[in-house]
Amino acid sequence: MKTILAGLLCGLVFGAGLVISGMTETQKVKGFLDILGDWDPSLAVVMAAALIVVGVGYAFARRSRPLFAARSLWPTKTAIDPPLVFGAALFGIGWGLIGFCPGPAITDLSTGAPSVIVFVAMMALGMAAQNLWQRRHAPPPALGNEPTLEASRG
Amino acid sequence: MASFTPLSAAIGGALIGLSAVMLMMLNGRIAGISGIVGNFLRFPRGEWSWEIAFLVGLVAAPLLLHAAGFALPHPVMPASWTVIVAGGLLVGFGTGWSGGCTSGHGVCGIARFSTRSIAATLIFMATAMIVVAVTRHVLGAAL
Q1: Which of A65, A108, A121, A90 has its CA nearest to residue B93?
Q2: Left if phi > 0, otherwise alpha if psi is -120 to 50, otherwise beta: which for B69?
Q3: Residue of A nearest to B17 (CA)
Q4: So what's the pLDDT on residue B49?
Q5: Which residue in A26, A86, B32, B43 has its CB near the most CB atoms, within 10 A?
Q6: Are B39 and A147 inside 8 Å of each other by CB?
């Protein structure tokens, strides 16, 4: 129950950050991506502010156990491998076409717009397809009943 | 740079960062949205509930802010359904394959000084910038 309330609170704060920063607006995100046009550096400021807070906060978080979990799941992957490179490139194409990355797309479901709902449904389908494809071609080693670190990324 | 909004960007960015720090200090997890969504689509691992709650929080945030006087988001979407479908599939498949998106790699990963996440962020930003340059300035499409 505590982890659920914590999840809800974190989602609310994250969503509020996206709305206040304007990152829920596809045109504002595209304004950042449009370096040949009327460039809007706002997204860089959003990332910089978030990075400062997370950089400092994670330094403290590393020293202690999480409040509601047995331990923290820190990602351990370090390799810059083909999945990372090709996956990031495909994501970038989709991001550039629409101006949506996963967080703002889900937050904008609040508008009830059919185009946003279709986008999020297709995004989920893409993730499911990728997951299925990965299982078929490179079955991951059995990791017990625990989410993998890879699964907690993203 | 007529539309540059540094103050609201900094406040919003700090809130996003605060959420990521809270999620690590409370639940011990990385605040990566594609990872959180992706976990639904895997077989249940008994860890669903906080993730559903997080996504509910994302959707509820604009509605609560709206009640407090903020405007609701009004994302401008491409007119073509083909582009919307293709964009959604690319974002979903790509973030799943690379193990992260703007939040997991771009914020949480870079904050850990992960070279893997720095590489991913440079790649998806460069690719997205090329796509916008081509669609807007070469093809002249109103995307």
Answers
A1: A90
A2: left
A3: A50
A4: 85
A5: B32
A6: yes
Containing structural domain, residue B119: 77-143
The pLDDT > 70 percentage for chain B reads 91
Residue A135 burial (CB count, 10 A): 11
Q: pLDDT digit string (tens) for A95-140?
A: 999 999 999 999 999 999 999 999 999 999 999 999 999 888 866 5
Question: Is B125 exposed, middle or buried, given 0-12, 13-18 or 19+ CB atoms closer than 10 A?
Answer: buried
- pLDDT tens across B103-119, in order? 999 999 999 999 999 99
Smallest Cβ–Cβ distance between B124 and the set A3, A88, A116 belongs to A88
Q: Based on the structure, what is the number of domains in chain B? A: 1
HSE, side-chain direction, 13 A CA sphere, residue B106 = 28
DSSP character at residue A152: G
Of the candidates A14, A88, A69, which has an alpha carbon nearest to the alpha carbon of residue B13? A14
The pLDDT value recorded for residue A140 is: 56
